Amino acid sequence: MKPHILPAIRSMKDLEKLTKTDYKECVLLDTHIGHLKSIMDLLKKNKIETYIHIDLIKGMSHDEFACEYLIQHYHPKGIVSTKTKVINKAKALNTTTVFRVFILDSQALSRSIDLIKRVEPDYVEVLPGVATKAIQIINEETNTQVIAGGLINDVDEVNVAVEHGAKYITTSDRDLW
Questions:
Q1: pLDDT digits over 97-109, tens only?
Q2: Residue 51: is it exposed, middle or buried by C-beta count within 10 angstroms (0-12/13-18/19+)?
Q3: Which domains does the chain have, with CATH numbers?
């Protein structure tokens, strides 16, 4: 198990590899509502806590009602979303929250900081994860731990993100797990 890596699961192959590692946490991405129960059962059987990225579940609305349903039925460790209403609902239900933001330019950074301050998630996932300047600024201007994700595919990039204040790195690159 490599420090600071939070495996991002996109496929059954990812899931199979994850169950053969020492990791006890993951982020579930790109799944279908019809597969969610069997995936969550497998993860629970392997004692792997899961952050469910609600925005990426096909066949399910991505709103606060779907969030409530997921929490009540699957009891994930956390909910990941780009939507403030979803984050607020998960917080109200005492579930760990990860607010995902895309930093494309200085205006997006400024808007994201305002939203982070307003929503106060447990974590903020900054994409792309190689945006070390944004990671550092968010760390300085908010009280929220940063998870870096996107475009990270080698150990040096992991180390740079961590050096600039990222608490975790989400990656679907199985070589980094």
A1: 999 999 988 899 9
A2: buried
A3: 5-171 (3.20.20.70)
